Amino acid sequence: MTTVAALAATIDRALRDAMGRALPAGLAGADPQVRRSARGDFQANGLLSAARQAGMSPRELAEKVAASVDGQGVIAACEASGPGFLNITVTDSALLGQVSARLGDDRLGIPASEHGITVIDYSQPNIAKEMHVGHLRSTIIGDALARILGFLGEEVIRHNHLGDWGTQFGMLIEYLIEHGEDWQHEAGSAEESLSRLNRLYRDARAAFDSDPGFADRARRRVVALQAGDPRTLAGWREIVAESKVYFNEVYDKLGVLLTDEDAVGESFYNPFLPEVADELERLGVAQVDQGALCVFFDDITGPTGERIPLIIRKSDGGFGYAATDLAAIRYRIGTLHARRILYVVDIRQALHFRMVFETARRAGWLNDQVHAYHVAFGTVLGPDGRPFKTRAGETVRLISLLDEAVERARAVVREKSRHLDAGSLEATAQQVGIGAVKYADLASNRAKDYVFDLDRMVSLTGNTGVYLQYAHARTRSILRKAGDEAAAVARVHPGVALDPAERALALKLDELGATLDDVAQAYEPHRLCGYLFELAQAFTAFFESCPVLRAPDQPTRENRLVLCKLTGETLKTGLELLGLAAPDQL
Question: Residue 399: what pLDDT?
Protein backbone atom coordinates (compact mmCIF):
# COMPACT_ATOMS: atom_id res chain seq x y z
CA MET A 1 0.00 0.00 0.00
CA THR A 2 1.33 3.45 -0.93
CA THR A 3 1.72 6.16 1.68
CA VAL A 4 -1.24 8.04 0.20
CA ALA A 5 -3.46 4.94 0.37
CA ALA A 6 -2.40 4.22 3.95
CA LEU A 7 -3.15 7.79 4.99
CA ALA A 8 -6.52 7.78 3.22
CA ALA A 9 -7.52 4.59 5.03
CA THR A 10 -6.41 6.04 8.39
CA ILE A 11 -8.28 9.32 7.85
CA ASP A 12 -11.36 7.38 6.71
CA ARG A 13 -11.39 5.45 10.00
CA ALA A 14 -10.93 8.68 11.97
CA LEU A 15 -13.75 10.31 10.00
CA ARG A 16 -16.13 7.54 10.97
CA ASP A 17 -15.07 7.81 14.61
CA ALA A 18 -15.43 11.60 14.58
CA MET A 19 -18.99 11.39 13.27
CA GLY A 20 -19.85 8.89 16.02
CA ARG A 21 -21.87 6.70 13.73
CA ALA A 22 -21.77 4.99 10.37
CA LEU A 23 -21.10 7.29 7.47
CA PRO A 24 -24.17 8.46 5.54
CA ALA A 25 -25.03 6.22 2.60
CA GLY A 26 -23.75 8.75 0.13
CA LEU A 27 -20.27 8.58 1.66
CA ALA A 28 -20.00 4.86 2.24
CA GLY A 29 -16.71 3.58 0.85
CA ALA A 30 -15.55 7.05 -0.21
CA ASP A 31 -11.90 7.66 0.62
CA PRO A 32 -10.80 11.12 1.75
CA GLN A 33 -8.71 12.89 -0.87
CA VAL A 34 -5.07 12.80 0.21
CA ARG A 35 -2.36 14.51 -1.82
CA ARG A 36 1.16 15.76 -1.30
CA SER A 37 1.19 19.27 0.08
CA ALA A 38 3.51 22.20 -0.42
CA ARG A 39 3.05 23.18 3.25
CA GLY A 40 3.75 19.81 4.84
CA ASP A 41 3.99 16.14 3.99
CA PHE A 42 0.38 15.57 2.92
CA GLN A 43 -2.98 17.29 2.96
CA ALA A 44 -6.42 15.67 3.19
CA ASN A 45 -9.61 17.33 1.99
CA GLY A 46 -13.00 16.23 0.75
CA LEU A 47 -14.70 16.68 4.16
CA LEU A 48 -17.25 19.23 2.92
CA SER A 49 -19.92 16.69 1.95
CA ALA A 50 -19.42 14.69 5.15
CA ALA A 51 -19.65 17.86 7.27
CA ARG A 52 -22.87 18.90 5.55
CA GLN A 53 -24.47 15.52 6.23
CA ALA A 54 -23.17 15.51 9.80
CA GLY A 55 -24.64 18.94 10.45
CA MET A 56 -21.36 20.67 11.32
CA SER A 57 -18.89 22.99 9.64
CA PRO A 58 -15.99 21.48 7.67
CA ARG A 59 -13.52 23.08 10.09
CA GLU A 60 -15.31 21.57 13.09
CA LEU A 61 -15.33 18.14 11.48
CA ALA A 62 -11.65 18.48 10.52
CA GLU A 63 -10.77 19.22 14.15
CA LYS A 64 -12.75 16.18 15.32
CA VAL A 65 -11.03 13.97 12.73
CA ALA A 66 -7.59 15.27 13.75
CA ALA A 67 -8.39 14.45 17.38
CA SER A 68 -9.58 10.95 16.44
CA VAL A 69 -6.62 9.94 14.28
CA ASP A 70 -4.77 6.86 15.41
CA GLY A 71 -1.60 7.07 13.39
CA GLN A 72 -0.54 3.47 14.10
CA GLY A 73 3.05 4.39 13.44
CA VAL A 74 2.22 6.13 10.15
CA ILE A 75 1.09 9.60 11.19
CA ALA A 76 3.32 11.69 13.44
CA ALA A 77 0.98 14.70 13.51
CA CYS A 78 -2.42 15.64 12.11
CA GLU A 79 -3.96 19.08 12.52
CA ALA A 80 -6.92 20.96 11.10
CA SER A 81 -6.13 23.78 8.72
CA GLY A 82 -8.01 26.43 6.80
CA PRO A 83 -11.73 25.98 6.18
CA GLY A 84 -11.61 22.21 6.65
CA PHE A 85 -8.34 20.63 5.57
CA LEU A 86 -6.03 18.29 7.42
CA ASN A 87 -2.27 18.76 7.35
CA ILE A 88 -0.53 15.44 7.96
CA THR A 89 3.07 14.72 8.92
CA VAL A 90 4.26 11.16 8.33
CA THR A 91 6.64 9.35 10.66
CA ASP A 92 10.23 8.69 9.61
CA SER A 93 9.71 4.96 10.08
CA ALA A 94 6.70 4.97 7.71
CA LEU A 95 8.68 6.80 5.03
CA LEU A 96 11.60 4.40 5.34
CA GLY A 97 9.19 1.46 5.20
CA GLN A 98 7.79 2.74 1.91
CA VAL A 99 11.29 3.24 0.53
CA SER A 100 12.23 -0.33 1.44
CA ALA A 101 8.99 -1.79 0.04
CA ARG A 102 9.31 -0.02 -3.31
CA LEU A 103 12.96 -0.96 -3.67
CA GLY A 104 12.00 -4.60 -3.17
CA ASP A 105 9.42 -4.45 -5.98
CA ASP A 106 10.43 -4.70 -9.64
CA ARG A 107 7.72 -2.16 -10.45
CA LEU A 108 8.75 0.22 -7.64
CA GLY A 109 5.36 -0.22 -6.00
CA ILE A 110 3.35 0.87 -9.06
CA PRO A 111 0.45 -1.53 -9.70
CA ALA A 112 -0.53 -2.58 -13.21
CA SER A 113 -4.27 -2.58 -13.77
CA GLU A 114 -5.97 -3.91 -16.89
CA HIS A 115 -8.04 -1.20 -18.52
CA GLY A 116 -8.61 -2.58 -22.01
CA ILE A 117 -7.12 -1.76 -25.42
CA THR A 118 -5.79 1.64 -26.42
CA VAL A 119 -4.73 2.38 -30.00
CA ILE A 120 -2.20 5.20 -30.31
CA ASP A 121 -1.86 6.75 -33.77
CA TYR A 122 1.45 8.62 -34.02
CA SER A 123 4.46 9.59 -36.16
CA GLN A 124 2.58 9.46 -39.52
CA PRO A 125 5.34 10.27 -42.06
CA ASN A 126 4.61 10.32 -45.79
CA ILE A 127 6.07 7.69 -48.11
CA ALA A 128 8.71 9.00 -50.55
CA LYS A 129 9.17 12.15 -48.45
CA GLU A 130 11.76 13.12 -45.89
CA MET A 131 10.92 13.27 -42.20
CA HIS A 132 11.47 16.75 -40.80
CA VAL A 133 11.36 18.43 -37.41
CA GLY A 134 7.57 18.57 -37.62
CA HIS A 135 7.47 14.79 -37.27
CA LEU A 136 9.54 14.91 -34.08
CA ARG A 137 6.76 15.80 -31.65
CA SER A 138 4.22 13.25 -32.84
CA THR A 139 6.79 10.46 -32.78
CA ILE A 140 8.25 11.00 -29.32
CA ILE A 141 5.05 12.12 -27.56
CA GLY A 142 3.25 9.07 -28.93
CA ASP A 143 6.14 6.81 -27.95
CA ALA A 144 6.18 8.15 -24.37
CA LEU A 145 2.42 7.66 -24.00
CA ALA A 146 2.68 4.12 -25.39
CA ARG A 147 5.37 3.29 -22.84
CA ILE A 148 3.59 4.88 -19.86
CA LEU A 149 0.13 3.48 -20.58
CA GLY A 150 1.65 0.07 -21.24
CA PHE A 151 3.54 0.20 -17.94
CA LEU A 152 0.31 1.00 -16.10
CA GLY A 153 -1.38 -2.09 -17.54
CA GLU A 154 -3.07 -0.86 -20.70
CA GLU A 155 -2.90 -3.11 -23.76
CA VAL A 156 -1.39 -0.63 -26.22
CA ILE A 157 -1.57 -1.08 -29.98
CA ARG A 158 0.82 1.26 -31.81
CA HIS A 159 -0.29 2.49 -35.24
CA ASN A 160 1.96 4.43 -37.57
CA HIS A 161 -0.53 5.91 -40.05
CA LEU A 162 1.74 6.20 -43.08
CA GLY A 163 0.80 8.48 -45.95
CA ASP A 164 1.23 5.75 -48.57
CA TRP A 165 -1.69 6.39 -50.94
CA GLY A 166 -2.77 9.17 -53.26
CA THR A 167 -2.47 10.72 -56.68
CA GLN A 168 1.24 11.55 -56.33
CA PHE A 169 2.08 7.85 -56.53
CA GLY A 170 0.89 7.69 -60.12
CA MET A 171 3.67 10.08 -61.11
CA LEU A 172 6.31 8.26 -59.04
CA ILE A 173 5.37 4.74 -60.13
CA GLU A 174 5.13 5.68 -63.81
CA TYR A 175 8.60 7.18 -63.72
CA LEU A 176 9.93 4.16 -61.85
CA ILE A 177 8.47 1.79 -64.45
CA GLU A 178 9.78 3.79 -67.40
CA HIS A 179 13.25 4.40 -65.90
CA GLY A 180 13.69 1.36 -63.66
CA GLU A 181 17.31 0.86 -64.64
CA ASP A 182 18.12 4.29 -63.16
CA TRP A 183 16.41 3.74 -59.82
CA GLN A 184 15.98 0.60 -57.78
CA HIS A 185 15.57 -0.33 -54.14
CA GLU A 186 18.78 -1.75 -52.69
CA ALA A 187 20.26 -2.28 -49.26
CA GLY A 188 21.97 0.75 -47.81
CA SER A 189 21.84 3.53 -45.27
CA ALA A 190 19.01 5.92 -44.59
CA GLU A 191 20.94 8.69 -46.36
CA GLU A 192 21.29 6.51 -49.47
CA SER A 193 17.58 5.62 -49.42
CA LEU A 194 16.67 9.25 -48.93
CA SER A 195 18.93 10.29 -51.81
CA ARG A 196 17.25 7.79 -54.13
CA LEU A 197 13.77 8.90 -53.04
CA ASN A 198 14.62 12.57 -53.52
CA ARG A 199 16.08 11.85 -56.95
CA LEU A 200 13.00 9.85 -57.95
CA TYR A 201 10.63 12.61 -56.85
CA ARG A 202 12.70 15.34 -58.52
CA ASP A 203 12.97 13.52 -61.84
CA ALA A 204 9.33 12.37 -61.83
CA ARG A 205 8.10 15.89 -61.07
CA ALA A 206 10.29 17.34 -63.83
CA ALA A 207 8.90 14.84 -66.35
CA PHE A 208 5.33 15.45 -65.19
CA ASP A 209 5.67 19.22 -65.58
CA SER A 210 7.47 19.17 -68.94
CA ASP A 211 6.02 16.18 -70.79
CA PRO A 212 2.21 16.13 -71.32
CA GLY A 213 2.40 12.54 -72.51
CA PHE A 214 4.09 11.45 -69.29
CA ALA A 215 1.55 13.41 -67.26
CA ASP A 216 -1.30 11.56 -68.96
CA ARG A 217 0.37 8.20 -68.35
CA ALA A 218 0.92 9.16 -64.70
CA ARG A 219 -2.78 9.93 -64.28
CA ARG A 220 -3.72 6.59 -65.80
CA ARG A 221 -1.24 4.95 -63.44
CA VAL A 222 -3.25 6.30 -60.47
CA VAL A 223 -6.32 4.49 -61.81
CA ALA A 224 -4.27 1.33 -62.25
CA LEU A 225 -3.00 1.58 -58.68
CA GLN A 226 -6.51 1.95 -57.30
CA ALA A 227 -7.64 -1.00 -59.41
CA GLY A 228 -4.88 -3.23 -58.05
CA ASP A 229 -2.86 -3.68 -61.23
CA PRO A 230 0.01 -6.09 -60.30
CA ARG A 231 2.78 -4.21 -62.13
CA THR A 232 1.67 -0.91 -60.61
CA LEU A 233 1.43 -2.40 -57.11
CA ALA A 234 4.94 -3.81 -57.50
CA GLY A 235 6.30 -0.32 -58.18
CA TRP A 236 4.33 1.08 -55.25
CA ARG A 237 5.76 -1.60 -52.93
CA GLU A 238 9.26 -0.75 -54.13
CA ILE A 239 8.82 2.89 -53.13
CA VAL A 240 7.27 1.96 -49.78
CA ALA A 241 10.15 -0.43 -49.01
CA GLU A 242 12.74 2.24 -49.83
CA SER A 243 10.98 4.74 -47.58
CA LYS A 244 10.84 2.29 -44.68
CA VAL A 245 14.62 1.86 -44.76
CA TYR A 246 14.88 5.57 -44.10
CA PHE A 247 12.07 5.72 -41.53
CA ASN A 248 13.49 2.82 -39.55
CA GLU A 249 16.92 4.40 -39.26
CA VAL A 250 15.32 7.59 -37.94
CA TYR A 251 13.31 5.54 -35.43
CA ASP A 252 16.46 3.68 -34.40
CA LYS A 253 18.26 6.97 -33.81
CA LEU A 254 15.34 8.26 -31.75
CA GLY A 255 15.09 5.02 -29.79
CA VAL A 256 11.32 4.70 -30.23
CA LEU A 257 9.27 1.51 -30.20
CA LEU A 258 7.84 1.73 -33.74
CA THR A 259 8.56 -1.16 -36.11
CA ASP A 260 7.36 -2.21 -39.57
CA GLU A 261 4.62 -4.26 -37.85
CA ASP A 262 3.15 -1.03 -36.47
CA ALA A 263 2.87 0.59 -39.90
CA VAL A 264 -0.79 0.75 -40.96
CA GLY A 265 -0.94 3.17 -43.83
CA GLU A 266 -3.77 4.87 -45.66
CA SER A 267 -3.68 2.07 -48.23
CA PHE A 268 -4.80 -0.43 -45.59
CA TYR A 269 -8.16 1.33 -45.24
CA ASN A 270 -8.70 1.91 -48.95
CA PRO A 271 -10.90 -1.22 -49.45
CA PHE A 272 -13.19 -0.10 -46.60
CA LEU A 273 -13.94 3.41 -47.89
CA PRO A 274 -17.00 2.59 -50.08
CA GLU A 275 -18.71 0.67 -47.28
CA VAL A 276 -17.96 3.46 -44.78
CA ALA A 277 -19.57 5.97 -47.13
CA ASP A 278 -22.55 3.69 -47.71
CA GLU A 279 -23.06 3.12 -43.98
CA LEU A 280 -22.92 6.83 -43.16
CA GLU A 281 -25.41 7.61 -45.92
CA ARG A 282 -27.72 4.77 -44.89
CA LEU A 283 -27.70 5.94 -41.26
CA GLY A 284 -28.55 9.48 -42.35
CA VAL A 285 -25.29 10.82 -40.91
CA ALA A 286 -24.05 11.95 -44.35
CA GLN A 287 -25.98 13.44 -47.25
CA VAL A 288 -25.26 14.19 -50.89
CA ASP A 289 -24.69 17.90 -51.54
CA GLN A 290 -23.65 19.16 -54.97
CA GLY A 291 -22.58 15.65 -55.92
CA ALA A 292 -20.39 15.10 -52.84
CA LEU A 293 -21.25 13.02 -49.78
CA CYS A 294 -20.98 15.36 -46.80
CA VAL A 295 -21.59 15.61 -43.07
CA PHE A 296 -22.74 19.01 -41.80
CA PHE A 297 -22.52 20.58 -38.34
CA ASP A 298 -24.66 23.44 -37.07
CA ASP A 299 -21.86 24.90 -34.96
CA ILE A 300 -19.12 24.79 -37.62
CA THR A 301 -19.47 27.57 -40.13
CA GLY A 302 -17.34 29.71 -42.40
CA PRO A 303 -16.71 33.48 -42.20
CA THR A 304 -20.01 34.30 -43.97
CA GLY A 305 -22.06 31.84 -41.91
CA GLU A 306 -22.15 28.99 -44.41
CA ARG A 307 -21.90 25.51 -42.94
CA ILE A 308 -18.54 23.82 -43.48
CA PRO A 309 -18.95 20.14 -44.38
CA LEU A 310 -16.77 17.14 -43.69
CA ILE A 311 -16.46 15.63 -47.17
CA ILE A 312 -16.62 11.83 -47.14
CA ARG A 313 -16.73 11.26 -50.90
CA LYS A 314 -15.90 13.94 -53.46
CA SER A 315 -18.13 14.76 -56.39
CA ASP A 316 -15.74 12.87 -58.72
CA GLY A 317 -16.14 9.72 -56.62
CA GLY A 318 -12.77 9.92 -54.90
CA PHE A 319 -12.21 9.72 -51.17
CA GLY A 320 -10.19 12.05 -48.96
CA TYR A 321 -8.58 12.05 -45.54
CA ALA A 322 -11.89 12.18 -43.68
CA ALA A 323 -13.09 8.89 -45.15
CA THR A 324 -9.77 7.25 -44.32
CA ASP A 325 -9.84 8.51 -40.74
CA LEU A 326 -13.42 7.32 -40.27
CA ALA A 327 -12.55 3.92 -41.72
CA ALA A 328 -9.66 3.74 -39.24
CA ILE A 329 -11.95 4.50 -36.28
CA ARG A 330 -14.45 1.91 -37.45
CA TYR A 331 -11.72 -0.72 -37.87
CA ARG A 332 -10.01 0.03 -34.57
CA ILE A 333 -13.26 -0.29 -32.66
CA GLY A 334 -14.96 -3.07 -34.61
CA THR A 335 -11.93 -5.29 -35.29
CA LEU A 336 -9.31 -4.34 -32.68
CA HIS A 337 -11.93 -3.73 -29.94
CA ALA A 338 -10.24 -0.55 -28.77
CA ARG A 339 -11.90 1.27 -25.89
CA ARG A 340 -9.77 4.34 -26.49
CA ILE A 341 -8.02 5.82 -29.55
CA LEU A 342 -5.39 8.53 -29.21
CA TYR A 343 -4.37 10.67 -32.18
CA VAL A 344 -1.03 12.40 -31.58
CA VAL A 345 -1.35 15.04 -34.26
CA ASP A 346 -0.53 18.75 -34.76
CA ILE A 347 -2.93 21.13 -33.01
CA ARG A 348 -3.75 22.70 -36.39
CA GLN A 349 -5.81 19.58 -37.17
CA ALA A 350 -8.15 20.21 -34.22
CA LEU A 351 -11.16 21.16 -36.36
CA HIS A 352 -10.70 18.14 -38.62
CA PHE A 353 -10.69 15.72 -35.69
CA ARG A 354 -13.60 17.49 -34.02
CA MET A 355 -15.65 16.85 -37.17
CA VAL A 356 -14.41 13.27 -37.60
CA PHE A 357 -15.11 12.32 -33.97
CA GLU A 358 -18.59 13.88 -34.04
CA THR A 359 -19.36 11.96 -37.25
CA ALA A 360 -18.20 8.71 -35.63
CA ARG A 361 -20.41 9.43 -32.60
CA ARG A 362 -23.43 10.03 -34.82
CA ALA A 363 -22.71 6.70 -36.50
CA GLY A 364 -22.59 4.98 -33.12
CA TRP A 365 -18.96 3.91 -33.42
CA LEU A 366 -17.91 6.20 -30.57
CA ASN A 367 -20.08 6.19 -27.45
CA ASP A 368 -19.92 6.35 -23.65
CA GLN A 369 -17.74 3.23 -23.55
CA VAL A 370 -15.46 3.97 -26.52
CA HIS A 371 -13.62 7.27 -26.84
CA ALA A 372 -11.28 9.03 -29.25
CA TYR A 373 -8.98 11.89 -28.25
CA HIS A 374 -6.92 14.35 -30.25
CA VAL A 375 -3.63 14.57 -28.34
CA ALA A 376 -2.72 17.90 -29.89
CA PHE A 377 0.74 19.45 -29.90
CA GLY A 378 2.18 22.83 -30.81
CA THR A 379 4.91 23.91 -33.20
CA VAL A 380 8.69 23.68 -32.88
CA LEU A 381 10.04 27.21 -33.18
CA GLY A 382 13.44 28.60 -34.09
CA PRO A 383 15.33 31.22 -32.05
CA ASP A 384 13.42 33.93 -33.92
CA GLY A 385 10.10 32.63 -32.57
CA ARG A 386 8.96 31.43 -35.98
CA PRO A 387 8.47 27.83 -37.19
CA PHE A 388 11.89 26.17 -37.17
CA LYS A 389 13.58 26.49 -40.59
CA THR A 390 17.09 26.39 -42.00
CA ARG A 391 18.87 29.67 -42.82
CA ALA A 392 17.76 29.15 -46.40
CA GLY A 393 14.15 28.99 -45.23
CA GLU A 394 13.77 25.26 -45.79
CA THR A 395 12.25 22.71 -43.41
CA VAL A 396 14.86 21.29 -41.03
CA ARG A 397 15.78 17.68 -41.80
CA LEU A 398 15.17 15.56 -38.74
CA ILE A 399 18.12 13.22 -39.19
CA SER A 400 20.54 16.17 -39.59
CA LEU A 401 19.15 17.78 -36.46
CA LEU A 402 19.70 14.58 -34.47
CA ASP A 403 23.26 14.24 -35.76
CA GLU A 404 24.02 17.81 -34.68
CA ALA A 405 22.59 17.13 -31.22
CA VAL A 406 24.89 14.13 -30.84
CA GLU A 407 27.86 16.24 -31.94
CA ARG A 408 27.07 18.88 -29.29
CA ALA A 409 26.60 16.18 -26.66
CA ARG A 410 29.91 14.58 -27.60
CA ALA A 411 31.72 17.77 -26.62
CA VAL A 412 29.86 17.96 -23.31
CA VAL A 413 30.54 14.32 -22.43
CA ARG A 414 34.20 14.58 -23.46
CA GLU A 415 34.65 17.55 -21.14
CA LYS A 416 32.72 16.05 -18.23
CA SER A 417 33.81 12.41 -18.43
CA ARG A 418 37.48 12.30 -19.39
CA HIS A 419 37.75 8.77 -17.98
CA LEU A 420 35.56 7.24 -20.73
CA ASP A 421 37.26 5.30 -23.52
CA ALA A 422 36.45 6.11 -27.15
CA GLY A 423 33.71 3.48 -27.45
CA SER A 424 32.00 4.48 -24.22
CA LEU A 425 32.32 8.16 -25.12
CA GLU A 426 30.55 7.63 -28.44
CA ALA A 427 27.78 5.49 -26.93
CA THR A 428 27.19 8.01 -24.16
CA ALA A 429 27.20 10.93 -26.61
CA GLN A 430 24.46 9.19 -28.60
CA GLN A 431 22.39 8.62 -25.46
CA VAL A 432 22.86 12.16 -24.19
CA GLY A 433 22.36 13.94 -27.53
CA ILE A 434 19.22 12.08 -28.57
CA GLY A 435 17.94 12.21 -25.00
CA ALA A 436 18.48 15.97 -24.86
CA VAL A 437 16.33 16.56 -27.95
CA LYS A 438 13.58 14.23 -26.80
CA TYR A 439 13.48 15.54 -23.24
CA ALA A 440 13.32 19.20 -24.30
CA ASP A 441 10.28 18.37 -26.38
CA LEU A 442 8.58 16.18 -23.77
CA ALA A 443 9.28 18.62 -20.93
CA SER A 444 7.26 21.28 -22.73
CA ASN A 445 3.50 21.35 -22.37
CA ARG A 446 2.58 19.50 -25.56
CA ALA A 447 -0.21 21.93 -26.47
CA LYS A 448 2.23 24.85 -26.58
CA ASP A 449 4.95 25.86 -29.03
CA TYR A 450 8.55 25.67 -27.85
CA VAL A 451 11.88 27.06 -29.03
CA PHE A 452 14.44 24.57 -30.30
CA ASP A 453 17.77 25.49 -28.66
CA LEU A 454 20.49 22.83 -28.78
CA ASP A 455 22.84 24.70 -26.45
CA ARG A 456 20.19 24.76 -23.73
CA MET A 457 19.17 21.15 -24.42
CA VAL A 458 22.65 19.72 -23.77
CA SER A 459 23.26 21.85 -20.69
CA LEU A 460 24.12 20.11 -17.42
CA THR A 461 22.09 22.67 -15.48
CA GLY A 462 18.37 23.34 -15.46
CA ASN A 463 15.50 21.13 -16.46
CA THR A 464 17.28 19.13 -19.16
CA GLY A 465 17.63 15.47 -20.01
CA VAL A 466 21.37 15.70 -19.40
CA TYR A 467 20.78 16.93 -15.84
CA LEU A 468 18.54 13.93 -15.12
CA GLN A 469 20.94 11.48 -16.75
CA TYR A 470 23.79 12.96 -14.69
CA ALA A 471 21.76 12.61 -11.47
CA HIS A 472 21.14 8.95 -12.30
CA ALA A 473 24.84 8.39 -13.07
CA ARG A 474 25.74 9.99 -9.74
CA THR A 475 23.60 7.45 -7.84
CA ARG A 476 25.37 4.65 -9.70
CA SER A 477 28.76 6.15 -8.90
CA ILE A 478 28.00 6.15 -5.17
CA LEU A 479 26.84 2.54 -5.31
CA ARG A 480 29.94 1.48 -7.26
CA LYS A 481 32.18 3.07 -4.64
CA ALA A 482 30.26 1.27 -1.88
CA GLY A 483 30.98 -2.00 -3.70
CA ASP A 484 29.70 -5.24 -2.18
CA GLU A 485 28.18 -3.38 0.73
CA ALA A 486 25.74 -1.54 -1.55
CA ALA A 487 24.74 -4.79 -3.23
CA ALA A 488 24.08 -6.42 0.15
CA VAL A 489 22.01 -3.56 1.62
CA ALA A 490 18.35 -4.34 0.98
CA ARG A 491 16.65 -3.13 4.14
CA VAL A 492 16.34 0.03 6.16
CA HIS A 493 16.73 0.87 9.83
CA PRO A 494 13.35 2.45 10.69
CA GLY A 495 14.49 3.61 14.12
CA VAL A 496 17.03 6.05 12.68
CA ALA A 497 15.83 9.66 12.53
CA LEU A 498 15.85 11.23 9.08
CA ASP A 499 17.66 14.42 8.13
CA PRO A 500 15.33 17.00 6.48
CA ALA A 501 16.99 16.35 3.10
CA GLU A 502 16.45 12.60 3.54
CA ARG A 503 12.78 13.19 4.37
CA ALA A 504 12.34 15.46 1.35
CA LEU A 505 13.89 12.84 -0.93
CA ALA A 506 11.81 9.99 0.53
CA LEU A 507 8.61 12.02 0.14
CA LYS A 508 9.45 12.90 -3.46
CA LEU A 509 10.16 9.23 -4.23
CA ASP A 510 6.64 8.46 -3.01
CA GLU A 511 5.09 10.57 -5.77
CA LEU A 512 5.97 8.44 -8.81
CA GLY A 513 2.70 6.50 -8.90
CA ALA A 514 0.49 9.58 -8.58
CA THR A 515 2.52 11.33 -11.28
CA LEU A 516 2.10 8.46 -13.75
CA ASP A 517 -1.63 8.41 -13.05
CA ASP A 518 -1.77 12.13 -13.83
CA VAL A 519 0.09 11.59 -17.11
CA ALA A 520 -2.27 8.78 -18.08
CA GLN A 521 -5.32 10.93 -17.34
CA ALA A 522 -4.19 14.06 -19.19
CA TYR A 523 -1.87 12.50 -21.83
CA GLU A 524 0.80 15.01 -20.79
CA PRO A 525 4.33 13.57 -20.55
CA HIS A 526 5.66 16.92 -19.28
CA ARG A 527 4.19 16.05 -15.88
CA LEU A 528 6.58 13.10 -15.60
CA CYS A 529 9.46 15.31 -16.76
CA GLY A 530 8.63 17.84 -14.06
CA TYR A 531 8.50 15.14 -11.40
CA LEU A 532 11.86 13.66 -12.43
CA PHE A 533 13.46 17.11 -12.40
CA GLU A 534 12.17 17.74 -8.88
CA LEU A 535 13.41 14.30 -7.83
CA ALA A 536 16.86 15.03 -9.25
CA GLN A 537 16.90 18.34 -7.37
CA ALA A 538 15.88 16.58 -4.14
CA PHE A 539 18.67 14.05 -4.67
CA THR A 540 21.20 16.82 -5.30
CA ALA A 541 20.20 18.52 -2.03
CA PHE A 542 20.45 15.16 -0.23
CA PHE A 543 23.84 14.42 -1.79
CA GLU A 544 25.22 17.80 -0.74
CA SER A 545 24.02 17.72 2.89
CA CYS A 546 23.93 13.99 3.76
CA PRO A 547 27.25 12.15 3.23
CA VAL A 548 26.57 8.58 2.18
CA LEU A 549 29.91 6.78 2.23
CA ARG A 550 31.08 8.94 5.14
CA ALA A 551 27.87 8.73 7.14
CA PRO A 552 28.28 9.03 10.95
CA ASP A 553 27.24 5.41 11.66
CA GLN A 554 26.45 2.16 9.86
CA PRO A 555 22.62 2.28 10.13
CA THR A 556 22.55 5.81 8.70
CA ARG A 557 24.97 4.80 5.96
CA GLU A 558 22.77 1.85 4.99
CA ASN A 559 19.62 3.96 4.98
CA ARG A 560 21.30 6.45 2.69
CA LEU A 561 22.53 3.71 0.37
CA VAL A 562 18.94 2.47 0.08
CA LEU A 563 17.78 5.99 -0.74
CA CYS A 564 20.47 6.19 -3.44
CA LYS A 565 19.39 2.84 -4.85
CA LEU A 566 15.71 3.77 -5.02
CA THR A 567 16.46 7.20 -6.47
CA GLY A 568 18.58 5.62 -9.20
CA GLU A 569 15.91 3.05 -10.03
CA THR A 570 13.17 5.69 -10.04
CA LEU A 571 15.14 8.00 -12.32
CA LYS A 572 15.98 5.10 -14.63
CA THR A 573 12.36 3.93 -14.77
CA GLY A 574 11.11 7.46 -15.41
CA LEU A 575 13.67 8.15 -18.13
CA GLU A 576 12.90 4.85 -19.85
CA LEU A 577 9.17 5.58 -19.76
CA LEU A 578 9.96 8.82 -21.59
CA GLY A 579 12.08 6.87 -24.08
CA LEU A 580 15.44 8.16 -22.79
CA ALA A 581 18.51 6.12 -21.90
CA ALA A 582 19.91 6.19 -18.37
CA PRO A 583 23.72 5.86 -18.66
CA ASP A 584 25.50 4.43 -15.62
CA GLN A 585 28.44 6.76 -16.19
CA LEU A 586 28.44 10.37 -17.28
Answer: 86
